[in-house]
Design goal:
Helices cover 37% and strands 17% of the residues. The protein has 489 residues and is of the alpha/beta class.
Amino acid sequence: MKKHIMGFVRSILFLAILFTSLFYINTMLRPKYTPKNSSWPTSGYYQFYKMREHSVDVLFLGSSVTVNAFSPQEIYNKYGIRSYNLGSEQQSPICSYYWLKEALRFQKPQVVLLDTRFFLDLHPNLPLNMREPMIRKCIDPMQWSSVKEEAVKDICSIDPSQSEMSYYLTNLRFHERWESADEADADTAYYSSSELKGHSALPKYGEKEYKTFQPDPNNKDAAKLQKLTLPYMERIAALCRENGITLVLLSLPGNAMNNGINNTIRGLAQQYGLDYYNFCETEMYRALGAELPRENTVDHANLWGAIRISDYTGRLLFEKYHVAPVVDTQYEETKAAYQRVKDNCELTHIVDPHSYFELVRKNGYSVLFASGKNSYKQITDAIQIELRGLGLTTDLRTIPNYGYAAVYESASGVNEMKAVDDDVILTGSLSCHTLPYKITGSGADHNSTIVFKEQSYKQNDNGLNLLVYDPVTDQVLDTATITSEGLTR
């Protein structure tokens, strides 16, 4: 009897170790997409599961343009409305449907806003209108439940090239990553790396102009929708009706648009009794009040464009759909993180040294400096004052051909090296994350270089070069050159 019991215990232990190992391997090999390494991170899905039940009143669903356009934190800051962005790259109606169904396991939203970009057949050779990696980015982070089982079965029945088992054992899909896996793949902080509730902020400015769409009321053209759009639109609409949710359709600026598309989507909205906002239209686009190129709302909106779109949407949610403001600690506690993201985006466009280094000090950024061949010609009295404000003691104005390298850290101070008519090499690690650097400051006819985390960053000969790193978000934010005219990039 005792032998049988011991055999049973050993079997249980073996299975426990086996399943624990499989879980760890599957988690480690799965690609990690965060605000640090992707414009369309999936780490926001993990934050969604940390939200208190019945604490999200508005959901955004749709493709990557949704991820960039709608900032739940901005909407909360201005209107007190609690929303969450569940968009993802190339998210077509099938994935929108399953994420809505998944969200309803935990939340009772009053309004769902759905982007229509992938209502059209944008990938005619792909059964799901999505590239397989984008399907995985959308579905892999979903928790296992009957909803995910149904989604996986549905996806694999529509696209037989995909394997159901690879969704259960993701190491089957990502086994080739075994040799390239590193510490980041084993870092559990990934699951809490996003605090923007699904939004991803882009820092780049847009184009200077956007040609809006002006509908022709006499035009009766119609567009052909992707074959899965209607059946999954029906499911989404039914799910919203069953749960007393107001469903709203959106076409964001830069979406493919003509009379045929506009007529078809408006007809679809009328069929289901839904509101439809086409921001590609001249009148609606102007209502955003965005000023290009800084406030880019077109295609993938940048931070400032998202602020415009989110402000318009928040006002609409409050005034038309009567979503009530709420004070919620889940949104109060992420205000500082959102402000830091805004500062990080702003930094890359500042040209005034005073404003630049003011932001460096405020946020505790680390800065790596390397002199170019003619740095001394570019350092004005005002710039030298700013450098001294950081604690740099070397006066680069007076001696030609200074070889100079320095590191500024708010926590540990300044480390400097200098030489006349010679290069200097400064090596070490940032104390915040023990990240290695090698800085070569040119004092002769050589080029200066900054190598940080084993990556070399291009430098300018004519001025004092710098690299800015944010220890909180673990991101290189900017590389620039200080000249007598300010900062150049």
